[in-house]
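Hey, sorry to bother you again with one of my protein questions. I've been puzzling over a protein and I'd love to understand its fold better. Take your time with it, there's no hurry, and the full record follows here:
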Amino acid sequence: MFQKLVEKKRQVKFVLLNDNKQIELGQRTLKFDFRGTYTLRARFASAITKGNDTTILFANRPIDTEKLAMALIEEIPEASHVDEDIDELIHFIKTEIHEEYLLIKTLKYKVAFHYGNMPSLLRTRVEDLAKEGKIKFICCTSTLLQGVNLPAKHILIDNPKSGNSQSMTRQDFLNLIGRAGRLQYEFHGNIWCLNPREWDTKPYEGERLQKVEPAMDQVMDNGGILIQELIDKRIDS
């Protein structure tokens, strides 16, 4: 975890969270100002991503993934050589989706975004290219919590939500950070929490073992009011 020091734009304090114990690692001066929303995350992601690393930047809303991707391409150089598979995907997007779709611009930098409401074929190709190491940065929403397997060396998180507004639970947080490091991909991974003291909740704290309840049990917890409202057509599908 890292936290900005008051009134010091480039100085941050790093803390390692291990077994719910915080170990202070000291202070460090960054090469950029610790301010802004998308630019800060983009600059930090660029600074920690080395060699063949892949970094996931978690975002709360689809629009945030796109803005993060655009901020990233302002911080990194365009790839000197565009991979054949990436070039093929760019051509497909231009001809089959839209010639101004943002992925066309970001893919040239090995940057992509990923969220549930985009065409499923594009999501699948982004996942495949990420697993093959051809994409270095993926800006992704909570689709990561629905079983999407995107192995990464680093995951960068800032005040995460499950959806647009609901604060992320401990269970979902553990699910999310489990994407850092995967067998056959990365032996271990790093989870970077940005300004954790300012988060709405602290899902990074708590027991690692969490009780998992089936979705139907959660719906029926109040006697099935949601289902009855649906049957009575008081809510839509």
In short: The two ends are 40 Å apart (CA to CA). The chain has a mean pLDDT of 85. The CA atoms of residues 87 and 165 lie 36 Å apart. The first strand starts at residue 2 and ends at 4.
